[in-house]
Amino acid sequence: MDDDARERAEQRTLLMPRRDQGSELRPGHALQEFVIDKLLGVGGYSCVYRARDTRLDRTVAIKEYLPATLAARHPDGSVGPRLPRFQAFYDKGLEGFLNEARLLGSFDHPSLVKVWRFWSENGTAYMVMPFYEGITLKKWLHDLGAPPSERWLRDLSEPLMAALGAMHEQRCYHRDVAPDNILMLYDRAAPGSYLEQRPRPVLLDFGAARRVIGDATQQLTAILKSGYSPVEQYEGEESLRQGPWTDVYALCAVLYTAVAGKPPSSSVARVVRDDMPPAAQAAQGPRGRYSASFLAAIDAGLRVRPEQRPQTMAALRALMDAPVAPHVAMPAAAPGAAPAPSRAQLWWAIVVLAMLAAAVAAWLLVR
Ligand SMILES: Nc1ncnc2c1ncn2[C@@H]1O[C@H](COP(=O)(O)OP(=O)(O)O)[C@@H](O)[C@H]1O
Ligand SMILES: [Mg+2]
Q1: Phi, psi of 156 (to 5 degrees)
Q2: Helix axis angle, 244-260 relative to 137-144, nearest 10°?
Q3: pLDDT digits over 162-186, tens only?
Q4: Mean pLDDT, the chain, as a whole number?
Q5: Residue in 66, 135, 183, 211 to alter for ligand 1 test, most ligand atoms within 8 A of Cβ
Q6: Whose CA is nearest to atom 27 of ligand 1?
Q7: What fold, for 134-322+345-366?
Q8: Domain at 24-130: CATH code
């Protein structure tokens, strides 16, 4: 196939996240002092393996940067961009991956994935983490088959709010809080089903690498997890600043998913028309299963406008216990404090200003 035809074929499939069959490292493959044991998980941006640390004789997890849409593994085992024009994006994604590793390595919180080591090799990069025995919250909620209790959800959110709060203190934002990035640890030896165990969540990957790659492949819906990403994370929304409230939105979206059985509507759709029922209305199960303050806190965190949400994890935490007057209904939508001027209004303003300028000019001329 000539380069042009190959490029066209690539174009056709570019919007489909895909991974070449067998592009992951095989069991027994040696990387530094680690030996790959098995593939644990495949995301759009990486492969995660269980591996053996032969020096310290312990099991670890290793994440390899391998963005499915941009990269391929060559026959010699190295990884690189599929097409020359992907090079710049591939490199930027790689830089994001290394930054994420560096950042995670600097934190030490039981609910934030720990990075022990990272390095570049084979044209790509690797990070070594503790191997966590667990399943993602996404699968957990699916296996549970019914909305969890408020007690359970509070036990889940406490450590997550603490971990995110600790990050925010260092001016770091996770930006990818979603059910598939929360790993629920469980104790295999404990009696009963793992679904009954007290939640012990660990926050996995940051959104750093995927943001960069998103620019390259325009997979905005894939990168910005529909339903979990607030409006300030969308392209072209630079006017709205990201901050702790960005993670507040995503965490509340996770809680909303848990109580309502489905994720919130996409925040972009909600800007145009917000007909998403508030958690207070969408919560499943008998009335009173969830306290008014807990549901009101979720709804407050899910307000479309960043400035209308609780601004910090501590503020969200406080809201969860704040009394809610029964007659004060939480706003379902997120009405703007001052609605943004419409295009027509802007045009009118320009026309009026132009007329004023013309009048002043005429006055100056005839004076
Ligand atoms: N330290 C770990 N221990 C065990 N499993 C992990 C670990 N890190 C990641 N995984 C598994 O790999 C999957 C993808 O990991 P993640 O960090 O979310 O990568 P991606 O950037 O590709 O989304 C997770 O959903 C989880 O199942
Ligand atoms: Mg992930």
Answers
A1: -75, -45
A2: 20
A3: 999 999 998 888 888 999 999 999 8
A4: 82
A5: 183
A6: 41
A7: Transferase(Phosphotransferase); domain 1 (1.10.510)
A8: 3.30.200.20
